[in-house]
Amino acid sequence: MRNLKPNRRSNCPISFSLDVIGDSWSLLIVRDIIFTGKKTFGEFLASDEGIARNILTNRLSRLETMGLITKNPHPTDKRKDLYKLTEDGLDFIPVIFELSAWGAKHEPETSEAQAWLADVQIDKESLIQLIKETVKNGGSVFAGPGNVIEQLKKRQQSQ
Amino acid sequence: MRNLKPNRRSNCPISFSLDVIGDSWSLLIVRDIIFTGKKTFGEFLASDEGIARNILTNRLSRLETMGLITKNPHPTDKRKDLYKLTEDGLDFIPVIFELSAWGAKHEPETSEAQAWLADVQIDKESLIQLIKETVKNGGSVFAGPGNVIEQLKKRQQSQ
């Protein structure tokens, strides 16, 4: 479990959160799990930002030490590990969500993937809760069966 | 104005936001402006985290280049500059707010300064809007005349 005391910069909760999450590479790994349901080293490595192998190894280990992700052996492929967000990690969803909203607002070129948000008939709190439940159960926002977008489309059709 | 194109890691809005804001030192400067109304180099330097002079100089310059803060001469003390959030910078308030909420929830020792949140009879969207308006007009959450806490107390008394 994390023990930041010796390294903590202050008692400010914002500083504490930043010390726990680490840097932007760590946040991008958390993003990969939430938005595209990535679970393995190879999947994280393949993301567009081109994270280096050694940085990825370091950040996965750090996220695990900080209690934000867990690592378990792949059920059928013993060469692989599966990474999953803990409850503490799932609680970072609102932070990632607001980072996404800032980017989509201030750089139109990035907003294509976020266009779905504009069409969504759901308040922000409910959407974040739905994302959290879905990711907790192994799903994601965009990818995989029963993803958040599919769920929202079904809801709208049944209305 | 910012032009990240050559350095952008991907078209993901989350990655874009992280590339604009930079690292945690930059976020802590933005926090200082929002929560305690700091405006000068000396005030940022005095924060609990003990930022080094050269890092502070670099991050202030970076935040200005990225269009998140402006720098103007102090009206009476020509040796000083006054830093202020731009509209783009003010839009980071929800991100900072969620970082604060995560820290307060997961590290009770940091939550003292955040205890006010629990007592506040206001929904999150309205609170963030109130913070944004107050900071835009030169105020802050905790410090200075007409700070957010004072405003909320007045509201509750008049209810």
In short:
The structure is a homodimer of 159-residue chains. With 159 residues, chain A is mainly alpha-helical. The first copy, chain A, has a single domain (5-157), classed as Winged helix-like DNA-binding domain superfamily/Winged helix DNA-binding domain (Arc Repressor Mutant, subunit A), CATH 1.10.10.
Explain this structure to me?
2 copies of one chain form a homodimer. Chain A is built from 9 helices and 2 strands; from the N terminus they run H-H-H-H-E-E-H-H-H-H-H. With 159 residues, chain A is mostly helical. Chain A has one domain (5-157): Arc Repressor Mutant, subunit A. Chain A has a two-stranded antiparallel sheet with strand order 1-2. The mean pLDDT of chain A is 90. At the A-B interface, helix 1, helix 2 and helix 6 of A face helix 1, helix 2 and helix 6 of B.
